[in-house]
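User: Design a sequence. Structure:
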């Protein structure tokens, strides 16, 4: 992340500072994480140093997993999955929470614990869906290659109808 005020490049985010990061909507419709600059201390949910897309999801997954190290009760997990179901999809939940521009520590507070668990589930679900889509694309590409090979082999092994039977044998 690059600070828009001082130009400092942030390469690390310590777990101790991650709670102060904002979850915000990204420019491409995905989730983004906005930080406080470590050099000039500039912090703005909308204009501060930020990362988006896959990198933001990766950071968010790690931070939420760290915050939820002790897990959650069965009731809390049911409540979290219920929130996702109310939104209709995991991605809808992440976009809704991002639009609120909350700090990670506030989303994980006692009042919002189920929302925090739901966000972790949603971000992991979205990541898993993307990985499955990539795997499916690879399988489809491999299938196309195998079909091409099969067509070539079929063409080479099929008897040519224009040749007399005595020549074909």
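Assistant: Done.
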């Amino acid at each position: 992340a690059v600070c828009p005020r001082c130009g400092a490049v942030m390469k690390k985010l310590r777990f101790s500072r991650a709670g102060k990061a904002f979850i915000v909507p990204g420019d491409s419709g995905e989730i983004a994480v906005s930080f406080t600059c470590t050099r000039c201390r500039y912090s703005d949910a909308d204009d501060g140093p930020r990362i988006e897309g896959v990198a933001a999801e990766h950071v968010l997954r790690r931070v939420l997993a760290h915050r939820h190290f002790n897990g959650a009760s069965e009731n809390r997990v049911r409540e979290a999955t219920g929130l996702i179901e109310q939104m209709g999809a995991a991605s809808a939940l992440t976009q809704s929470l991002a639009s609120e521009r909350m700090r990670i520590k506030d989303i994980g507070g006692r009042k919002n614990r189920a929302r925090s668990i739901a966000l972790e589930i949603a971000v992991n679900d979205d990541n898993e869906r993307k990985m499955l889509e990539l795997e499916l694309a690879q399988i489809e590409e491999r299938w196309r290659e195998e079909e091409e090979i099969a067509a070539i082999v079929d063409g080479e092994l099929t008897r040519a109808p224009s040749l007399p039977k005595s020549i074909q044998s």
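The radius of gyration is 25 Å. Residues 83 and 118 are 7 Å apart (CA to CA).
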